Amino acid sequence: MKTLTVAEGSAAAPAGIAWRRREHLFYTGMAAAVVLTVFAGFARSYYLGPYFAARALSPLLHLHGIVFSSWIVLFVTQTTLVAAHRTDIHRRLGIAGALSAALVFMVGTATAIVRAKQGATPLEGVSPLSFMIVPLADMLVFAVLVGAGFYFRRRADIHKRLMLLATISILSAAIARLPFEFLKAGPPAFFALNDLFIVACLVYDLVARGRVHRATAWGGLLIVASQPLRLWFGGTSVWLAFAAWLTSWVA
């Protein structure tokens, strides 16, 4: 009996190592996909702006770019540290992560309101006040997912899924700027492409665990459900009155 137990333990160890390797490969792969998406989306207007003769950006937009890029860099760093088994450093960077997330929310919200005040809208026939709900809802969903992620920071299985989903929730702006013809259809198109990242998370859970993790299910549902809701609510008189009030605070 003792021999059988030792043999079972010896067989389980390699299986556990292989499972962790697959997990690290998935999360580092998703982090790489996020970086490529953000860079490709904002290459012409921001990262490689001088090469594309992009128009000059305001200080607020430069700050927006720096803050959001910093979050992506930190997300990739944290993912890489876990894959390298340096969870000690990963935990020390937790405060930096909280500060970075707070800056993303504040700067993202301020930028959305200021741009609406300036009359900026990327969609023909959609007023700036109506469109403002899209980036503001991104910030709200991001804040909920990041807040939950930090709350469950001692539950690694929940924490890492929520932080990945939080990052996915703010990718729509980059995706909307990708040079694909079908994205000219507007929010339904770039939301659908954005949701493919969530599909990847669902598939990973099913393959790795045999079932979808509750954090993936609830976090993914929050992102997906918010998309049609914001498009509907953005055209209502209640939202337009609230949006007008918000922009009235901008000089």
Concise summary:
The chain has helices at 2-47, 59-83, 87-92, 94-117, 128-131, 133-151, 156-168, 172-176, 187-209, 214-233, 237-247. It has 251 residues and is mostly helical. It has one domain (21-247).
Q: How would you describe this structure to a colleague?
A:
- The structure is a single chain.
- This protein has 251 residues and is mainly alpha-helical.
- It has helices at 2-47, 59-83, 87-92, 94-117, 128-131, 133-151, 156-168, 172-176, 187-209, 214-233, 237-247.
- Helix 4 packs antiparallel against helix 6 (133-151).
- The longest helix has 46 residues, at 2-47.
- The chain is globular.
- The mean pLDDT is 91.
Q: Give, in order, the helices and strands.
A: HHHHHHHHHHH
Q: How does the major sheet shape up?
A: none
Helicity, as a percent range: over 70%
Individual helix count: 11
Strand content: under 5%
Low-confidence stretches: none
Oligomer: single chain
What is the arithmetic mean of pLDDT? Answer: 91
Gyration radius, in Å:
20 Å
Distance between the termini: 78 Å
Shape: globular
The total count of strands amounts to 0
Q: What number of domains?
A: 1
Structural class: mainly alpha
